[in-house]
Amino acid sequence: MYGTALPYDAAWDLQRTCRTERAADRCRDLLLLIEHHSVYTVGRTTHDQHWPGEQRLTQQTGIPVIRTERGGSITYHGPGQLVGYPILRLTDHCPGPKAYVRRLEEVMIATLAEWGITAHRREGLPGVWVGGDRPAKIASIGVRISQGITTHGFALNVCPDLEPFSHIVPCGIADCRVTSMAALLTVAPDLHTVQQRLAAQFADRFHLTWTESMTPEQLTALLERSGADVHPTAVHAPSTPKEPLDD
């Protein structure tokens, strides 16, 4: 699907609406899979040494900064990056946040394996990494649990511009190298195909069956209907067509 990416603040509003509906059992489990316009997001554990500050960073890059309620430090989102926001009742799936993060890592490791990319965890550093001697981060995780419901989630670098990461300490990890599927493969993968395969891997590991796929606009309209029953749904936002990257 092609069009414009979903702005970060619009996705955040959608998450909060879904969280309220899920907590009240007016909808079932959801997975929002989208792209964002370029944006830096600042998590709850961001320290001064992780970034040059909001004003300087915006001046350097022209990219806006949004402070969020999620865990983790500062990161970058932009076109070509697949961002996932699961809206789940945590205790239905995992005994706690640590097990949940590991399950998300499993989903992305399995998805990457479908493209022949061997990825792994690093102890104490949530996310997904590739490479041995000098590992590079290919996916980040930052979650929030409120009212027993998960929001925020993960970001998998499919084919984004990696240059914006150079202006920050990604995820607050010193000397963190960042890579993407496109940088590791001869041909950049189609983001929509990755989206579909990740949704399937997610459903498998969380023991869900997606009953439908819809755009964020369709989901918002459905949630606005009084008494609507939203079934397990993978929500896909349109991706942004872009030129192949040189990296």
The end-to-end span amounts to 24 Å
Q: Treating each run of at least 4 consecutive H or I residues as one helix, how many helices?
A: 6
Helix content: 25-40%
Q: Radius of gyration, rounded? A: 17 Å
Please identify, by name, the CATH architecture. Answer: 2-Layer Sandwich
For the sheet with most strands, the description reads: 9 strands, mixed
Oligomer: single chain
Number of strands: 12
Shape: globular
Secondary-structure map:
Blueprint: H1 8-23, E1 30-34, E2 39-42, H2 54-61, E3 65-67, E4 75-77, E5 81-87, H3 97-113, E6 119-122, E7 125-130, E8 136-146, E9 149-157, E10 177-178, H4 181-184, H5 191-205, E11 212-214, H6 216-223, E12 233-236
Helix pairs in contact: 3-5
Report on this model:
By secondary structure, the chain is α/β, with parallel strands linked by helices. The chain has helices at residues 8-23, 54-61, 97-113, 181-184, 191-205, 216-223; strands at 30-34, 39-42, 65-67, 75-77, 81-87, 119-122, 125-130, 136-146, 149-157, 177-178, 212-214, 233-236. The strands form 2 sheets. Strands 1, 5, 6, 7, 8, 9, 10, 11 and 12 form a 9-stranded mixed sheet that branches. Helix 3 (97-113) crosses helix 5 (191-205). The longest helix has 17 residues, at 97-113. It is globular. 42% of the residues are buried.
